[in-house]
Design goal:
mainly beta, seven-stranded antiparallel sheet
């Protein structure tokens, strides 16, 4: 779990940011770190204090549940081209194994799960995963709001494209599991600086009832399993008639590989 903080000058009234609140009572004491929980809220609060120093408010993240750590060494809970994935111990982060994409055709491929895993992100939740590709011309990513029907995949996909140096958010509608490009609508992208053979921390917030979704990419410290500096953030509202529905909570993993080495590990949900 990632622990973060905000620093505030408490020599005046402190306004908690508009999209948040502190859900524990905090002791406003000079020279003391203030620990509490930081959660989403629509309104603002102010807290009176006469302390004379900059204080640190610690932000404890929401509890996370492991979705898939790939320790069972199979993809029985997934649909799609599961033969294009195996498990490997080459670069595991959590435990012994990670997902390892074996396709080399350059096709856009995803496998998705709607049931059978330990947890799935809710509408207001987040899917996180550690993503990496060994090849500088390939892509790897995560899927949310995913469904599978008669050989077709529908999902939002967040993709790190190492070839173009971009973070890409796309929507796939009834895309063939054997090659999804025909069902793809690229929604938006951001230029990023990333390197192959390096793990990154990806977060996807599934689409909500207003059509809003979010994709974030961070640097990653595998020694402490923590996200580091934010690389890029995409917020997007999908107003299309083909937008996906918030009630579909399936997840998935994605690769577009010219050579092997699409690594994904330790999927979690909030």
């Amino acid at each position: 779990m990632v622990e973060e903080y905000i620093e505030v000058d408490v020599n005046r009234n402190v306004t908690i940011p508009a999209s948040s609140s502190v859900t524990e009572t905090l002791s406003w004491q000079t020279g003391t770190d203030l620990r509490g929980y930081y959660t989403l809220r629509a309104s603002t609060d102010t807290q009176e204090t006469n302390a004379k120093t900059t204080q640190r408010i610690w932000i404890s993240p929401l509890a996370t549940t492991t979705v898939d750590d790939f320790e069972d060494q199979d993809f029985a809970e997934y649909n799609g081209q599961t033969a294009s994935w195996t498990t490997s111990s080459t670069a595991a982060i959590e435990g012994t194994y990670h997902a390892d994409g074996t396709d080399t055709s350059g096709a856009e491929l995803a496998i998705v799960s709607e049931t059978g895993l330990a947890a799935y992100p809710a509408e207001a939740g987040t899917l996180t995963g550690r993503v990496r590709h060994e090849d500088s011309t390939s892509s790897v990513g995560l899927c949310t709001n995913a469904t599978y029907s008669s050989g077709n995949i529908t999902a939002y996909v967040g993709e790190v494209n190492f070839n173009t140096g971009k973070l890409i958010l796309s929507r796939y509608n009834s895309a063939s599991e054997t090659g999804m490009s025909a069902g793809r609508t690229q929604l938006t992208e951001r230029l990023i600086s990333v390197s192959p053979q390096t793990y990154y921390w990806m977060e996807m917030k599934p689409v909500n009832s207003s059509g809003e979704l979010e994709l974030l990419l961070y640097e990653y410290d595998s020694s402490t399993d923590t996200r580091e500096n934010l690389i890029s953030r995409i917020k997007y509202t999908d107003g299309s008639a083909n937008a996906l529905t918030a009630t579909d909570t399936g997840i998935g993993i994605y690769q577009r590989s010219d050579s092997t080495g699409a690594y994904i590990d330790y999927l979690q949900a909030e």
